[in-house]
């Protein structure tokens, strides 16, 4: 049986494009929108590791299940829609609480999807080789609507999460590295997002394996999680 | 039917007892199925109809605002765009319209609405619910008006329209139809819609929500499920059978293979596993119930049909899904957890229903066992071939052509066996061939569905049931027949003579008899092998333990 070595979970409000992001990465296509029911499980072979990815439903109906999907997760991708500020607010209000069941040293990535619908995104789509992904080309004027959520807002949320999780900024990847703006439609930054996470998760798998004999999941421990791993990131 | 082209022939044995009462001269009225033909008066006496029938407009034109106790409108507009960045193409249930004055909206043959007791719109088949607050207000008013007299409104007949009301807990369901469906059939449809809602939320949580907050906007919780309701309602018009006959459609399959697959399902168990189902394109291959979990509780066919519809959702096309689902007939207040996956990148779908919330990986392991077993049986190849024949409209549904019967003039049929072994009653089934030309377009399918519904309504009329109907319509001739052994609806070429029709039906019955082992699950396994599974092949175990 293919036992997954690690777990990544996609969370976020409905219709922000979680399924589309994953399908773009896994199947290299941008399919018609379907509304996810519950959660869908995918297995990705990354180097010699099996990484499981859970695509969850953003619908409120399935909200109660979120913490179950997150149990023991090594990384959580919090997804919002750059054109809908509310979807970023929802991440904090509704979804952050679900991550309490995740692994203690869980990584967080914050992803603003659908940049193709913004004027900056249109630009980035055309000239993505020229611009660095983080460049905020906000001053270009084009007929597209301006982006409603700036990358800085995501960075601010990332820092808030660290505070909430009582993590030290020194011990985790920098906000700039973990906040992405993507387009599942054009594929912009999608590979970067997943592969960055995979590369970050692999050392965690190794560490877990090294610690295995003594390492059992201690869900009763309420101590602020201590980060022992650092500087693993590319 | 209104052509009077039917007669009771209460002799099950002989088709020659058919009586000729066709009136070809009236056929033209049959054509579109949407002409304002007077309704059959059937069943009308049973319905509580308000004395205000005549005052009701035939379609829900917006009444003066003051008439509608619509406290609803204020609650709508602000919330929608803010809270759900989500109300985008996929969730709006029927295109742009929705304004009751919109011609296109008014021209729909059948509307189905779900609203809360407070009159708050929850679902509308066509148009956006936001635009319908006033209309829904009228419906609430009608219901509460009759209620205040200590009565319950069931239906309103207004010229060519039927309005059927169904109250289920805090939800009110309304169908408004110009089709030939009877009120009882429409009620059945509303019950199925309600079951669908319950299956995603449970009855208990719906009740709790509204007890807590009467004007709660249930759309928040149903968001994303509207498409499922749309598909359910479409299937009634486009591929009639399941709901009409209260039976599931099986994939035609050689009996040894089906038995082997059943045995395989019973062998592959997991902790808390209650039910395993193999299906393809909304049709059943086989199913197995776990004795320890569903002991003595038979799975209701409506629940099984609901599951078959549910796993057909596009959301299950990729990955392995894990989601809660409620079986409304089994227990409307609790959830099962369902593992759903397409096997081997095929349209073949495996559903594993369990009671344990955290059992995903156990179910996934169980799926691999099933998959391996199916490879060993060569089942994938056979099912793949079965799926190969089918027309574009249902590309993933294995089916057969009506040609297989070898009865020229026969265009389509629905056959539901009734002469089944006792322990088989738990699984009502029917079979029908693929809808082929001339029923490839939407309008034609609707016409056929209308005809089937009309015949069904006559056969099952509560006050004057019929056994046999020979009906000449404009573009086809139909023969419906119910005996103690089967219920049959046939659609024949319009040029067929009565003698010819009898010949065709005889041929069809002979064919079904010959093929019944393949068309139906004749001896459905009842239970899985108990846990602590013996790994040896216990092919008949389920059968015997069940008896």
Automatic annotation (TrEMBL), chain A:
<dbReference type="GO" id="GO:0090385">
    <property type="term" value="P:phagosome-lysosome fusion"/>
</dbReference>
<keyword id="KW-0813">Transport</keyword>
<dbReference type="GO" id="GO:0046872">
    <property type="term" value="F:metal ion binding"/>
</dbReference>
<keyword id="KW-0378">Hydrolase</keyword>
<dbReference type="GO" id="GO:0003925">
    <property type="term" value="F:G protein activity"/>
</dbReference>
<keyword id="KW-0479">Metal-binding</keyword>
<dbReference type="GO" id="GO:0003924">
    <property type="term" value="F:GTPase activity"/>
</dbReference>
<feature type="compositionally biased region" description="Basic residues">
    <location>
        <begin position="224"/>
        <end position="234"/>
    </location>
</feature>
<dbReference type="Pfam" id="PF00071">
    <property type="entry name" value="Ras"/>
</dbReference>
<dbReference type="GO" id="GO:0030139">
    <property type="term" value="C:endocytic vesicle"/>
</dbReference>
<keyword id="KW-0460">Magnesium</keyword>
<dbReference type="GO" id="GO:0071346">
    <property type="term" value="P:cellular response to type II interferon"/>
</dbReference>
<dbReference type="GO" id="GO:0006897">
    <property type="term" value="P:endocytosis"/>
</dbReference>
<dbReference type="InterPro" id="IPR041836">
    <property type="entry name" value="Rab20"/>
</dbReference>
<dbReference type="InterPro" id="IPR027417">
    <property type="entry name" value="P-loop_NTPase"/>
</dbReference>
<keyword id="KW-0653">Protein transport</keyword>
<feature type="region of interest" description="Disordered">
    <location>
        <begin position="212"/>
        <end position="234"/>
    </location>
</feature>
<dbReference type="GO" id="GO:0005886">
    <property type="term" value="C:plasma membrane"/>
</dbReference>
<dbReference type="GO" id="GO:0012505">
    <property type="term" value="C:endomembrane system"/>
</dbReference>
<dbReference type="GO" id="GO:0005525">
    <property type="term" value="F:GTP binding"/>
</dbReference>
<dbReference type="InterPro" id="IPR005225">
    <property type="entry name" value="Small_GTP-bd"/>
</dbReference>
<protein>
    <recommendedName>
        <fullName>Ras-related protein Rab-20</fullName>
        <ecNumber>3.6.5.2</ecNumber>
    </recommendedName>
</protein>
TrEMBL record, chain B:
<feature type="compositionally biased region" description="Pro residues">
    <location>
        <begin position="57"/>
        <end position="66"/>
    </location>
</feature>
<feature type="domain" description="FUZ/MON1/HPS1 second Longin">
    <location>
        <begin position="276"/>
        <end position="368"/>
    </location>
</feature>
<feature type="domain" description="FUZ/MON1/HPS1 third Longin">
    <location>
        <begin position="409"/>
        <end position="516"/>
    </location>
</feature>
<dbReference type="GO" id="GO:0019086">
    <property type="term" value="P:late viral transcription"/>
</dbReference>
<dbReference type="GO" id="GO:0019085">
    <property type="term" value="P:early viral transcription"/>
</dbReference>
<comment type="similarity">
    <text>Belongs to the MON1/SAND family.</text>
</comment>
<dbReference type="Pfam" id="PF19036">
    <property type="entry name" value="Fuz_longin_1"/>
</dbReference>
<dbReference type="GO" id="GO:0035658">
    <property type="term" value="C:Mon1-Ccz1 complex"/>
</dbReference>
<dbReference type="GO" id="GO:0006623">
    <property type="term" value="P:protein targeting to vacuole"/>
</dbReference>
<comment type="function">
    <text>Plays an important role in membrane trafficking through the secretory apparatus.</text>
</comment>
<dbReference type="GO" id="GO:0016192">
    <property type="term" value="P:vesicle-mediated transport"/>
</dbReference>
<dbReference type="InterPro" id="IPR043972">
    <property type="entry name" value="FUZ/MON1/HPS1_longin_1"/>
</dbReference>
<dbReference type="InterPro" id="IPR043970">
    <property type="entry name" value="FUZ/MON1/HPS1_longin_3"/>
</dbReference>
<dbReference type="InterPro" id="IPR043971">
    <property type="entry name" value="FUZ/MON1/HPS1_longin_2"/>
</dbReference>
<feature type="region of interest" description="Disordered">
    <location>
        <begin position="1"/>
        <end position="106"/>
    </location>
</feature>
<feature type="domain" description="FUZ/MON1/HPS1 first Longin">
    <location>
        <begin position="110"/>
        <end position="232"/>
    </location>
</feature>
<protein>
    <recommendedName>
        <fullName>Vacuolar fusion protein MON1 homolog</fullName>
    </recommendedName>
</protein>
<dbReference type="Pfam" id="PF19038">
    <property type="entry name" value="Fuz_longin_3"/>
</dbReference>
<dbReference type="Pfam" id="PF19037">
    <property type="entry name" value="Fuz_longin_2"/>
</dbReference>
<dbReference type="InterPro" id="IPR004353">
    <property type="entry name" value="Mon1"/>
</dbReference>
